[in-house]
Specification:
Number of strands: 15
Number of helices: 17
């Protein structure tokens, strides 16, 4: 062995290797330290921006409070742009009445929404291991996400807002994330920023034990878990979930069907690369015993049916009477208030009749003449066994009695938080080229950039394979 070979294999190389490993580990530790939630205090780079956001949002929501919603939304409401001038910036609000009607349908008052967005508590910055270049902020109570968007993404949402609203009217328990506002802020001598407000899928997050971002593929779908015992928030990916299952039992058919419905809708928008967010936490003992009670099923069915019995025609405002929760609801999920229990069975029958009337097309009162009644009853047998039963099953599921229950599904032992996010990537020319390149780069592996029909099918298949 010559001298050069000895030097290359000697202690110096070993020390150099150890130093390199320490540096790489040091960089990795620094990355871990950045993940998670951070309070945006006065020293934070986004402090000034978030203060302006809070001031602008307070005024925007106040405008809705001062100008009550119409009974029906008009075409002008979907294209409305309101600009409010502030001392150091201006804020533009898009389609304000439309988003206000959606918030109302979710059981939010405008005052509650305003208070959450504009409370004295600082916003929180969420830094994840996502490749997205967007900035993520949470309200101090963690109810709402604010996310910066490109102009194209904001305009895409606004251009498809009507059919998005129609989808949520038809499926009020849709897994699609609930967008609650689109805004643009212009600060002097800075570029304009578009941002959206949306409901947090992971709320309440106090006891969540794991979070996942699922796309149904393999390439780049592994994330190193957080060090054991750390408080770092890491959103894991598909490969991290392998070997696990979403245990739902009776709720499994509902979830499978709703994923199919929502992804089919996204396919009509020609989008891909959306994610199924998933988190879970163990149920408390009282939740284990009551979350699947028949009385609770009836009460929650009543609330869902009450929404649809008065649902306006597609394209009109979301009905204000539907509220998953109310101020006097029990705080323990699964419990039915005593004053409601005596009305359960009669009210369920009543609400079922309302839905039947709506589907049979007999008008607001659903009254038929004696001659028509016999024919109608015979015809109902076939139609109700298909359309109505599917309708009922898809819009009657158990909802825990706390805010933001729409993305929550209780299994026998775990509570799951599930939602579909990031629906803005259109399958255009660039994505088609990316698809061809990845086919060459990753042969015999699945990757995210595929056609919308393939993406839809693959995500549905993932849910099928990972639920019990």
């Amino acid at each position: 062995m010559n001298r050069t070979e000895m030097e290359m294999s000697g202690p110096g190389v070993s020390r150099h290797s150890r130093t390199g490993k320490r540096r790489r580990w040091g960089r990795l530790r620094q990355q871990w330290k950045l993940l998670g939630l951070f309070e945006i205090d006065q020293q934070h780079e986004f402090y000034s921006l978030t203060c302006m956001m809070k001031e602008g949002l307070f005024a925007a929501v106040q405008n809705t409070i001062d100008n009550p919603l119409p009974d029906e939304l008009s075409e002008d409401d979907y294209t409305l742009e309101v600009t409010q001038i502030h001392k150091d910036f201006r804020m533009e609000t898009y389609a304000g009445p439309v988003f206000a009607s959606l918030r109302r349908s979710l059981g939010m008052t405008e005052k509650e929404y305003q208070q959450s967005l504009s409370s004295e508590g600082s916003y929180l910055q969420f830094i994840s291991n996502s490749k997205s270049k967007a900035d993520f902020f949470l309200t101090n109570d963690k109810l709402f996400f604010l996310k910066t968007q490109s102009k194209r993404e904001a305009r895409f949402l606004l251009s498809n807002l009507r059919i998005y609203m129609e989808h949520l009217e038809k499926y009020p328990h849709s897994l699609l994330v609930k967008f609650l506002g689109v805004h643009r802020i212009k600060i002097a001598y800075q570029r304009m920023k578009y941002f959206i407000v949306m409901q947090s899928v992971f709320y309440p997050d106090d006891r969540i034990t794991a979070r996942y971002d699922i796309k149904g593929c393999e390439v780049s779908r592994w994330t190193d878990p957080a060090p054991e015992g750390s408080q770092i928030i890491v959103v894991l990916k598909d490969l991290n979930f392998e070997g696990q299952f979403i245990q739902l039992d009776q709720q499994r058919p509902w979830l499978l069907h709703q994923v199919e419905i929502d992804t089919a809708f996204l396919q009509t928008l020609n989008v891909l690369d959306y994610s199924l967010l998933l988190a879970h936490q163990p149920l408390h003992q009282d939740e284990l015993s009551q979350s699947l009670s028949f009385a609770t099923l009836i009460m929650r069915a009543k609330k869902s049916f009450s929404f649809f019995s008065k649902r306006p025609l597609a394209g009109r405002s979301v009905n204000a009477t539907f509220s998953p929760t109310h101020a006097t609801s029990p705080t323990v999920p699964g419990v039915v208030a005593e004053e409601d229990s005596t009305l359960l069975f009669s009210e369920l029958n009543t609400t079922q009749c309302h839905v039947t009337e709506m589907h049979s097309g007999n008008g607001a009162m659903g009254i038929a003449s004696p001659e028509e009644d016999k024919i109608e009853q015979q015809s109902r047998v076939g139609t109700e066994s298909a359309d109505l039963q599917t309708f009922q099953a898809q819009n009657r599921r158990l909802l825990p009695n706390f805010k933001n229950p729409l993305h929550v599904i209780d299994g026998p032992e775990q509570r799951y938080f599930i939602g579909i996010i990031d629906i803005f990537t259109v399958y255009g020319f660039k994505k088609r080229l990316e698809h061809l390149w990845k086919r060459l780069r990753h042969p015999r592996q699945t990757f995210s950039t595929v056609s919308p029909p393939a993406y839809c099918y693959r995500l549905c298949q993932w849910v099928q394979d990972h639920t019990k």
